[in-house]
Structure formats: C-alpha cells, structure tokens
Amino acid sequence: MLDGNYIETLEPGTFNGLSNLYYLSIANNMITGLPGSIFNGSKNVEYIFIQNNKLHAIEQGTFEEMGKLRELNLSYNQLEWIKGYEFLTLHSLTYLDLNKNKIKYIEPGSFKDLQALIDLYLNNNNLTVLPDGLFTKMKKLRGLYISESNVKKVVPGALGELTALKYL
C-alpha cells in the first residue's frame, strides 16, 4: 500500500510487470492523473483503491489489461466526465465507486462492458440528467446509488435495462 503519502504524479509504467500483484491501494495522496500504460502487465490485480486523490481524468487504456479487476474505488476525486472508454475491458468488475467526484456527464453506454457489475456508486456528483442508454447491458446491477447528485431529469429508458435492480 502507498496510502497517505504525497504522491502527485505517476509516470507511465509505474506498476508495469507486477504480475503477482493482487491488491493495490494508492489512496489519500495528491494524484492528478492516471497514464494509459500505468498498469501494463499487472493482469492479476483484483482490487484497486485510488480514492481521496485529485484525479481529473482517466486516460484511455489505463485499465485495459485489468480483466480480473473486481473492485475499483475512485471516490473523493475531481473527475468531471466519464467519456466511455474508461471501463471498456473490466468484464469482471463487480463494484465501482465514483462517489464524491464532480461528474457532470456520463456518456451513454459508458458502463456497457461492466456486465458483472453489482454495485455502482455515483452519490454526490453533479449529474443533472440521466440520459437514455446510460445503463445499457447492466443485467446484474443490483445497487445503483445516485443520491445528492443534483439530478433534475431521468430520461425515459435511462433505467430500462436494469432488470436485477433492487436498490435505487
């Protein structure tokens, strides 16, 4: 764990080749961005905790080789947009925490590859609209938490495919 330090920047390749790494926590630092090739070769990581940093964006390819990742915590950062490429290959992800960011907009379909996702946390963001297609193909999602996120409108069809949903 590298929690509670003063890390501001992570260079490309910082965690490359850590083939036995299972759990990574870099929480409570001052990290502003995640380079696209930061985890190359770290294919066995199942848990990543990056909460309470200063992340503004996630570069394309950051989690590209992380097919075994089950839990990802990006809460308490400064993310403003989810563009659709951030979570493309995370087919095993069951828990995603994006609470307490500044997310204004999520591209419809951004979560479509997260077919194993059970819990999605979007509390305390700046989402004013939940557009149609936002939660496409999320057949296993049981918990969707969007409290205190300034939602003013839920477009018909935004929640339509969430057939397993139990908590909203």
TrEMBL record:
Supply the alphabetized keyword list: Leucine-rich repeat, Repeat
Q: Which SMART domains match?
A: LRR_SD22 (SM00365), LRR_TYP (SM00369)
Matching PROSITE patterns, A to Z? LRR
Which superkingdom, per the lineage? Answer: Eukaryota
Record's InterPro entries? Leu-rich_rpt, Leu-rich_rpt_typical-subtyp, LRR_dom_sf
Any single Pfam family the record assigns to this protein: LRR_8
PANTHER family listed in its UniProt record: IG(IMMUNOGLOBULIN) AND LRR(LEUCINE RICH REPEAT) DOMAINS, MATRIX-REMODELING-ASSOCIATED PROTEIN 5
Q: What is this protein called?
A: Platelet glycoprotein V-like
Species name:
Actinia tenebrosa (Australian red waratah sea anemone)
**Taxonomic lineage:** Eukaryota, Metazoa, Cnidaria, Anthozoa, Hexacorallia
Q: Which gene is this protein's source?
A: LOC116308698
